[in-house]
């Protein structure tokens, strides 16, 4: 704080001092000081020139200092005052320093050391000392409490004034004593129409506010008696005469010593009107809620629980209000589609819950389509949803029915291929559908234009006919119109249209409009023509059919028409039948069949191929196949019945059925019937603990009889064998033929131990073997056929037909392998041998692909000069595990399995390629050397055999004349014509043929003369013993003579000794092959042989 200058006295300050010492200077007034201190007043002395202030202990306490302790440091008075009040205090101090008088006490706040603020009131008077020095004495007191009360009063009065002025309520202040209006707020003037200046100071009764004086008097009496506000529902009148309803709250108060009444008026007119309107609205809502045909529900928005539902809800969904309220829609299971509930909640959230279509369940499980409307409301402080559910199931059904009707109409028009048109007659404007335009030969678009433009494709004569038909329609006052006309198409053709329409007249009876349809009847006309032709054809078919055809009335059963086929089957003429019934004629042999036919017709609407027994008029019963179709003839329901005589057919079917299970040649059971009987026998033998046996027979060398003597002789042999077998077994035994020369004898019901049964079966088998081996005289031929027999015991050798037949076949195979004309009982070791053969066959199937086959060439030599003139290609097999395999073992398997076709093709191709390379290398002469390749019967029987040989020659570039194919008598005899044909085709290519193993079979000279062979090959079985067996020597001489007579070349095989060769040369056979010269050689060894010979 600034210090004083010489001219200006300093501001007051309190020096460091002890107030007790200051009080001692007042010895003349101790009691006064005690009184002041006791009254919490302080005294002070201010030396104006020095600025020093001394105070009493009471004053020191008022400044927040301990009155019993000295002030230890100097205090500047101004610094004790809050900054915001210092200016005012300084102004007063400066006035005092200037010698001016201040009228009122000085009041301001000071800050105590603890930071709190306190109000002080300082009073004093200016005096001068004897020396003329100015000084002030005074008293100081704490007025904080008074200031707080005054401030509270001031704030209260300000709040009252603000409340009075700003309150939204109507307020008025009235003197109680004289009822004069002291103050009104702006809401009073606005509500009652009085200006404040017009009414202030006037008695309130002059305003004529109270509609009811009693309410005013009641207020006057009660207001001063109650500390609580007097609250009344009153009606007050405005300046303009309007009546306001409201609540008047009147409070008796005293303000600044004056008795007043504060009146607060709450205008409830609008609220009452709203309440009345709400009451009316609620009544209307209640009526609407209860009586609306829509289902209405109120739900808690937060929980979804029903608060209230209306009767329509109960009726529509089946839950009573008591059952629904308090539960949620999920608990009731009302949503057919749960996603609909979420859609409803989302729509309600956005405030757009309107026309939401949902499907809801009723209590009985039925589903309805509904529209959902709703919105949020507040109900007793709870946010709720009001949901209106409008059942639109019937509406949707009607809409669907309407849509379906429209769809049906559209489909009907489309399916009927109809076009539509609408002719406005006064303007001659015509509107037509796209189909109608198309039918008229125009673009396939809707037409709108002049009437004549629409008909421009119609021929002129048809237009004239249309005009006449229309004129007749109008003249005859008819409304319906139908006409047929033609349209000329771009391609020159004509389309026939039928137009059907209805004429509409205006109020004066003049033609106004014509609406109709168009349909293309070209196909219909064509169908009618075809129908007429069809009817003519039907009439012809009806009368010319070999089947019996009748037309009868459905209700009466009387014949309307019958054809000649009916006469043939029944013997009745048409004149004897028409007008009568089948019952009268007794056509059906068994009435129950007729009843069954009628029942089937009633249930199925038709009868198709029902077998019945008809009776001829002569009494003969015939089996007929009956079909019945309902037809309509001239509007009369009829039945068209067709009956075919199937007596002979059934006999033929029975025969076919017999043939299906019997051999056609011998009439024995075939394989199918045998397997069936074998199945039955296995079960029967097991049930009775008996045994049986299966004898598998095969005729030895029967094929040679067939091949040499022909199939008729072979068939006779089979029939004779059948007769012998059937004569040799019991009635309970079965003889069956499996095909070819294979027979099976099934022996059943054999008693005894296995050894006894085995012995008995062997005896039966041996008896059959001997019986079949007896000579036969057939067509001048004396034949002797021996059987090989394989035996399997039941059940010892199998429990299924397949197993037994397989094991009997294995035993048969072993019997053949052991020399034929033998009997073999199945043994397990035979199964092993069969399995080994199967493995051999499987290995053979892979051998070609794996490259396990190889060729060996055995040289063919001219004994006259020792030159190699040819070679026979021989197949060898190097098994990867078992090593080299004998051709005697695997060639037969190749033949039986059919693999010989593929392997034989490989042999031919490989032999041709190798021989071609030999010729290219100059080791063989193409004109003298022959490549001999064996051909199996299966190879030769292939339909493309000739093409395969030609392909091998072409691919190898081997000259055709070098190839010589070796065939056996088996190939020749099977089909002589096919054999000769293929040989001749190959001969044209230059290929030659040799007859291999000649003399070992049953070939005749007749066959030999027909065959285009070039060489005969003498079998090694004759060569082997020719030098010491006269028979073999004589056979060789005969073969040589035969070859000379037929002009055929000769070669002998199997020549192993010099004396054999000498004998052959002596007979004139100079070509040979055999170990005497060389065994079969691998290809490279054969090449080396040729190279040595050339060297």
UniProtKB/TrEMBL annotation:
The keyword Magnesium does not apply. Its EC number is 3.1.4.52. Keywords: c-di-GMP. It catalyses: 3',3'-c-di-GMP + H2O = 5'-phosphoguanylyl(3'->5')guanosine + H(+). Residues 837-1094 form the EAL domain. Its cofactor is Mg(2+). Coiled coil: none annotated. InterPro entries: Biofilm_reg_signaling, EAL_dom, EAL_sf, GGDEF_dom, Nucleotide_cyclase, PAC, PAS, PAS-assoc_C. The keyword rRNA processing does not apply. It is found in: Cell inner membrane. Its main location: membrane. This is cyclic-guanylate-specific phosphodiesterase. It comes from Ectopseudomonas oleovorans (strain CECT 5344) (Pseudomonas pseudoalcaligenes).
